[in-house]
């Protein structure tokens, strides 16, 4: 009987699991309106509420700040909330959870050195359970398309070709 050889394992393919780009940690939501008085920003009360608020509860969290109502808020108020969060959470964003996840993914992707992928055959692993995975596929492909020889999607045993550069890099 012939010996079974795992050609996938012995190939030069590099597999990227997009789960590596998900930053673990608690996500917490803050409603900007909770610092207002019946939807109205009164500067002194607003500053007092921010000053006396328990910001430490966000110490090990990623925070997204939403404004649920259509209100007119002066720009400095957003700056002030961001100031308080800056020293009291891992990272924060104004917007929905999706905005937070996209920011975290992009920071992680931008921190990657893509030189080891130059001229290589790369597979972006499919079937990921991270939130907003589509964003990771888009941003990762932007970076990889500049350096890889070919890009595929799926599992090493069953891939969908995305592109192959005409010129070997």
Please characterize this protein's 3D structure:
This protein is of the alpha/beta class and 169 residues long. Helix 4 runs parallel beside helix 5. The two termini are 41 Å apart. Strand 5, helix 5 (133-144) and strand 6 form a beta-alpha-beta unit. The protein has a four-stranded mixed sheet, with helices on one face. Helix content is 31%, strand content 22%. Residues 5-10 have low confidence and may be disordered. The longest helix is centred in the middle third of the chain and has 14 residues, at 97-110.
Chain-wise SSE layout:
Elements: H1 7-10, E1 14-16, E2 26-31, H2 43-52, E3 61-66, H3 75-86, E4 91-94, H4 97-110, E5 121-125, H5 133-144, E6 150-155, E7 158-164
Parallel strand pairs: 1-5, 2-3, 3-4, 5-6
Antiparallel strand pairs: 6-7
Helix pairs in contact: 4-5
Task: Give the biggest sheet.
Answer: 4 strands, mixed
Overall mean pLDDT stands at: 91
Total count of strands: 7
Shape estimate: elongated
Q: Beta-strand level of the residues, as a percent range?
A: 15-25%
Q: Spans of 5+ residues with little confidence (pLDDT < 50)?
A: 5-10
Q: Number of DSSP helices?
A: 5
How is this structure best summarized?
The protein is α/β, with parallel strands linked by helices and 169 residues long. 31% of the residues lie in helices and 22% in strands. Strand 6 and strand 7 (158-164) form a beta hairpin.
């Amino acid at each position: 009987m012939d010996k079974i050889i795992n050609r996938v394992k012995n190939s030069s393919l590099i597999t990227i699991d997009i789960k590596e780009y998900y930053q673990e940690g608690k996500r917490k939501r803050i409603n900007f309106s909770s610092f207002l008085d019946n939807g109205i920003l009164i500067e002194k009360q607003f500053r007092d509420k921010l000053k006396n608020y328990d910001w430490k509860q966000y110490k090990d969290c990623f925070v997204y700040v939403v404004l649920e109502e259509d209100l007119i808020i002066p720009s400095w108020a957003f700056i002030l909330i961001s100031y308080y969060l800056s020293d009291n959470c891992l990272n924060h964003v104004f917007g929905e959870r999706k905005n937070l996840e996209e920011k975290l993914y992009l920071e992680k992707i931008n921190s990657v050195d893509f030189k080891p992928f130059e001229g290589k055959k790369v597979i972006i692993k499919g079937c990921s359970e991270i939130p907003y995975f589509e964003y990771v596929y888009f941003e990762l492909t932007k970076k990889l398309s500049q350096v890889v020889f070919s890009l595929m999607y799926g599992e090493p045993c069953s891939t969908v070709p995305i592109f192959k550069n005409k010129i070997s890099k």
